[in-house]
Amino acid sequence: MKLNNLEFNLNDFASEMAKLKNEKHFDFLVTIVGEDFGEDGLGCIYILENTQSHERTSVKAVAKDRDNAYLPTVCNLWKAAELLEREVYDFLGIKFLGHPDMRRLYLRSDFQGYPLRKDFDMDPEKNKAPMFDDPEPDYTMQYSLDNEGKLVAKKKALFTDDDYVVNIGPQHPATHGVLRLQTILDGETIKKIYPHCGYIHRGIEKIAESYTYPQSLAFTDRMDYLSAMMNRHALVGVIEEAMGIELTDRIHYIRTIMDELQRLDSHLLFYSCCAQDLGALTAFIYGMRDREQVLNVMQETTGGRLIQNYYRIGGCQDDIDVNFVDNVKKLCAYMKPMFKEYRDIFTGNLILHNRFKGVGNLSRENAISYGCTGGTGRATGWHNDVRKNHPYDMYDKVDFKEIIYNNGDSFDRYMVRMDEMEQSVHILEQLIDNIPAGDFYVKQKPIIRVPEGQWYYSCEGSRGEIGVYLDSKGDKSPYRLKFRPMGLPLVSAMDEMLRGEKIADLIAVGASLDYVIPDIDR
Amino acid sequence: MFDFQIVTTWFDSLLRDTLGLGSLWSIIIECVIVGLIILTAYALLAIALIFMERKVCAYFQCRLGPMRVGPWGIFQVFADVVKMLIKEIFAVDKADKLLYAIAPFLVLIGSVGAFSFMPWNKNAGILDFNVGVFLITAISSIGVIGIFMAGWSSNNKFGVVSAMRGAVQMISYEMSLGLCLIAAVALTGTMSVSGIIDAQSGPFGWLIFKGHIPAIIAFVVFLIAGNAEANRGPFDLAEAESELTAGYHTEYSGMGFGFFYLAEYLNMFIVAGIAATVFLGGWMPIHIGVAGFDQVMDYIPGFVWFLGKTFALVWVLLWIKWTYPRLRIDQILKLEWKYLMPLSLLNLVLMTIVVACGWYIK
């Protein structure tokens, strides 16, 4: 989608945004892109979606004064903005007025400068590799304007004196990566969770600004490694859309099949990890055993198991393997009885029901407000499947059900994934026999330049909407490339879901949310 | 039937008559030898159990388990023991050093103490008091203190949460554990381990047959509660590795950790052993009242019966552990205080009625 940004006067920005949300039902804040607009100043692009008509729009807000940039917060309208605005503050130094917790999100609190500003000094002397721990402040800042229009900061403490704080992570078996959940406990009961991200932050968006487009493709597989195909799909999708490349049917078929294989792989791992986190190790091994079969099928064509490197701008890296069609058919036949086995050993287990049902409830309103897409959103009754709402490739031509559950608890989140696996197999079966002949790659110029403009394109990743925002100035590398992570909204909603629950539920809810840390941190 | 008294009387007369030692010396020598036998059996059984756990769980999970060290991987556990022995033991900063050092031994003492009550064969029980069953529950509950001290003293927040969980859970489940044993005592009329086994000698004399419905209920509840008491899945909350990394023994290394590990496996054996003794007749062979069959059964030595029954129950415990997900602490306590404890109380009443009216197999 090429963006046509709405622009509002900063003075009535808040009320215009409220109007968009309340009157035009743009109640899903897809993402906030912080960007350095050069001469115009620093600013943000808010991408919004109407959850009824699935219409999308974007709003641009610019803070003129670079040294003292501030914008009004929108986190009172969309809770997703709580972490998204912190991310913008972290990378661009824009302060959000009225935001209750204006700290850095990814970088260390003693980091000098704001890296996504175009005038950021990359001299390594400025930010030496530190030999000491992050001097993490135990307070946060809230900014507001006083009567004369000057920025005033107010300090707020994060903890009270008798809080019992336990760090779940960054090295913890149940966070599935290096995420730190600073949890305030009252006995076994959770009072508050502060997520700390950035332990595997690699600055992918910053590096991409100096890489050519084909070079920047390599990053996507390393974000959410369980959604490697879809991440890459979103990135090549935005570039192809911007360049107006027409793909052959064969490419559409192959991409759809690969996406679904990847989804199967990811959901099998989800099932395994759920079992592992709840202590059912046999179910865990069963899931891993079958995931192996999926990986084998993908490996024969792509050569990779985790890092696939398969799509490229204008098609795929290579044609499908000669045995691919047979193998996929065998896989589909193999998987179907396994779903019953999962039901027998784990889904039907009474202990699982006790651990999952009614635990970590998320209402539909909150799911939309936090932007929890994917299985987490669909478990609350929110129809958010990008494959249905903004069909791409073959998804408008194949028959599949969007799995919707309505309770929004951990068990429904789990069931959405379990049912989606069966739908993935169903999609594979429809496509695999009919892959048309044709080119697997539409030849591109040696140097790829994307025409000027701003684009947003999204795919249904394994755990939500993976979106890519691309701002091109017509060069061979992007001016600004921003990924919409699938996991960040899930992490920001954890506090809401878990307040008042037991610490063991944090593990259960974390397992059912199925976030992947490199995707959050990028 | 093989009577172990032959061995003990021969050894005693060897010391007293052949070597001409006095009463004091022969008793001292006998005690030392028995103690050594207990500890060796304890270590060997732990190794056997660890190996069994690995292989059994591997087969449940469609794997092979350890295969590299020795044929079929049988030396894997020995390699692990050696590794554990040569690891450095280091103290944690700001830990309560004394409690930190004592805790593994307390856990081990409780476990070895209860282990000494195992009736291996006819007249081969090492400890046998007239309040035997009562003493077993008393000694085995020393382990809770060890777990609590370990979690508390190691200056680790996960450890404290785990210690709290361990203490709450183990103290709770001791209720139904004790009540189930009392139900058995009500039927046999004695608390001594050998007395309980002697009471199970007749045709279909095992308590589980003899006491039919109440005994079966008590047996099942005992296994559940015993599983919880031994901190085994699905009740392994105290060391729930996906929540609390390793719980109370997070900060232990080397043999400090090794002792907890040993005790965990032996506790499983002890729970299975007591269940086998009290409900399945211990070393007593099965008798069905047909003279020929009973005689054949009697030819099988008692220790084979005892180990066979115990390992069968250990296998059941492993089966449970590797199938079920973990419960949550409040669900565990709910299970005990709302269901198991009232059930065992009712069961005790039922058993008393059965005994009073003589409705059991005599």
Write the layout of secondary structure elements.
The complex is a heterodimer of chains A (522) and B (362).
Chain A: E1 5-7, H1 13-22, E2 28-36, E3 42-49, E4 56-63, E5 70-72, H2 81-92, E6 95-97, E7 139-145, E8 151-157, E9 164-168, E10 180-186, E11 189-196, H3 204-208, H4 213-220, H5 228-243, H6 249-277, H7 281-302, E12 311-312, E13 315-316, H8 324-347, H9 350-356, H10 364-370, H11 374-378, H12 386-389, H13 410-432, E14 453-461, E15 464-472, E16 480-484, H14 487-498, H15 503-513, H16 517-521
Parallel strand pairs in A: 1-4, 5-6
Antiparallel strand pairs in A: 2-3, 3-4, 7-8, 9-10, 10-11, 12-13, 14-15, 15-16
Helix pairs in contact in A: 4-5, 5-6, 6-7, 6-13, 6-15, 7-8, 8-13, 9-13, 13-15, 14-15
Chain B: H1 5-18, H2 23-60, H3 76-85, H4 97-115, H5 132-140, H6 142-153, H7 157-188, H8 193-198, H9 207-210, H10 212-229, H11 241-244, H12 254-279, H13 291-299, H14 302-323, H15 329-357
Care to describe what's here?
The complex is a heterodimer of chains A (522) and B (362). Chain A has 522 residues and is α+β, with helices and mostly antiparallel strands. Chain A has two domains: 5-152, 2-Layer Sandwich (Beta Polymerase, domain 2); 204-521, Orthogonal Bundle (Cytochrome-c3 Hydrogenase, chain B), CATH 1.10.645. Helix content of chain A is 38%, strand content 18%. Chain A has helices at 13-22, 81-92, 204-208, 213-220, 228-243, 249-277, 281-302, 324-347, 350-356, 364-370, 374-378, 386-389, 410-432, 487-498, 503-513, 517-521; strands at 5-7, 28-36, 42-49, 56-63, 70-72, 95-97, 139-145, 151-157, 164-168, 180-186, 189-196, 311-312, 315-316, 453-461, 464-472, 480-484. In chain A, the strands form six sheets. Chain A has a four-stranded mixed sheet with strand order 1-4-3-2. In chain A, strands 9-10-11 form a three-stranded antiparallel sheet. The relative contact order of chain A is 0.14. The mean pLDDT of chain A is 86. With 362 residues, chain B is mainly alpha-helical. Chain B has one domain (90-357). Helix content of chain B is 70%, strand content 0%. Chain B has 15 helices and no strands. Chain B has helices spanning 5-18, 23-60, 76-85, 97-115, 132-140, 142-153, 157-188, 193-198, 207-210, 212-229, 241-244, 254-279, 291-299, 302-323, 329-357. Chains A and B meet through helix 6, helix 7, helix 9 and helix 15 of A and helix 7, helix 11 and helix 15 of B.
